[in-house]
Amino acid sequence: MSWLEQAPGARSPAEGYFGHRPDLMREFKSFYGALWDEGLLDPALLEMIRLIIAQVHKCEAELAIRHEASGLSDEKRAALGDWRSSDLFTQSERACLAYAERIPFEHTAITDAEADAVKTALGEPGYVAFSVAASLFDAMCRVRMVMDFESAQGDALHPPASAKGVLR
Amino acid sequence: MSTTPRVSSAIAGEPAHFGSVLAHHPVLAERFMHLYGQFWDSDVLSARLKEVARMRNARVTECGFCRNVRFDKAVGQGLNETIVADITDGYETSDKLSDAEKAVLKFTDALIHDPELLTGDARAALTRHLSPAQIAELGLGITLFLALAKALITMGLEPEQMGRTELPTPAPAAAPS
Fold it and tell me: Do A138 and B147 touch (CB under 8 A)?
């Protein structure tokens, strides 16, 4: 249980926190949810990026969230813990995973070559969406840890955020 | 850290900056600008306390753009350069920062750097000075500051050189469609 009292009507720990400012939480869900709602990137790739960043943080609350409708297979999800030695991931996915792993603690050290590899994989607009998504996933893990959110799964079919859904 | 943009502007005639790069995704851009404006427009948490957290985030993430920008509303609330210098280094022993500001800085450090920094005493100080609504607004703001700074840095949108620049505080844009 978070050390801060929960906002009334909260459907998740994240809503229990941000729900103390319901109007801002609504706008945040709209922004964060756009990553998932608007199809800016392949949802399975987004899910992989989210999970690999949670893995770096060892953020159990983030890792407990499953977006099953993203299309990320159970096999790949399980292999993320040791993705470098797995043959399940494409070259493009490897470029994205390697880059995403550096966001939490090494963001200033990312090289032009690493950025070029992701741009080649996703195209320029894709690279922009990827950069915003990875940075937000990092920030959300940090919020969960500093606020002591409990692991809460909820409905596994839905994404972690959606303009009209629950903020998980 | 690259100061050469790794991505081009999506707005004809404009250089690559966060807004013009985010314009590759108009819906994302529109929703971010609206959210960021709403956040700064809210007075639940003062602009000065928000700016204290933003300045600390700029220092820890090494975001040169963030570090050099000052929003005018916070400056108007007395956040001068002497105080900003204490935010950068040695805030815990500062005699210029209030206890509420020090509690905000400790929470900021815990969120962006190490959650273990938010000890029982630090939590108690935060909840003594801020209401749950203010703590929620602060946490949302730090989330945005951190994500924005890392996105700026990784996309190579950091300025090569930049002096201190006072800007109008972001204002709410039209509601997103």
Answer: yes
CA distance B127 to B53: 16
**Torsions phi, psi of A69, nearest 5?**
-75, 0
Interface test with A, best of B34, B118, B140 (most A CBs within 10 A): B140
Which residues of chain A does B112 touch, with a Cβ-Cβ cutoff of 8 Å? 142
Answer yes or no: are the C-beta atoms of B77 and B70 closer than 8 Å: no
Q: Is A2 near chain B, with CB under 8 Å?
A: no
Judge contact between B143 and A143, C-beta under 8 A. yes
* CA distance linking residue A161 with residue A29, whole number of Å: 6
Cα nearest neighbour of B18 on chain A: A128
Write down the domain spans for chain B: 18-167
B28 closest CA partner among A100, A8, A126: A126
- pLDDT per residue rounded down to tens, chain A (168 residues): 789 999 999 999 999 999 999 999 999 999 999 999 999 999 999 999 999 999 999 999 999 999 988 999 999 999 999 999 999 999 999 999 999 999 999 999 999 999 999 999 999 999 999 999 999 999 999 999 999 998 876 767 788 888 888 999
User: The tokens of A40 are what?
Assistant: 């800016």
> In the beta sheet, which residues pair with residue B69?
B165
Query: Considering the domain B18-167 in this protein, what is its CATH number?
Result: 1.20.1290.10
Give the E-state strand segments of B65-138 in sequence order: 69-71
Domains of chain A in start order, with CATH, are 18-146 (1.20.1290.10)
The H-or-E segment that residue A109 falls in is: none
- A58 φ/ψ angles, rounded to the nearest 5 degrees: 55, 45
Do A145 and B22 make contact, defined as CB atoms within 8 angstroms?
Answer: no
Question: Of B23, B10, B54, which Cα lies nearest the Cα of B170?
Answer: B54
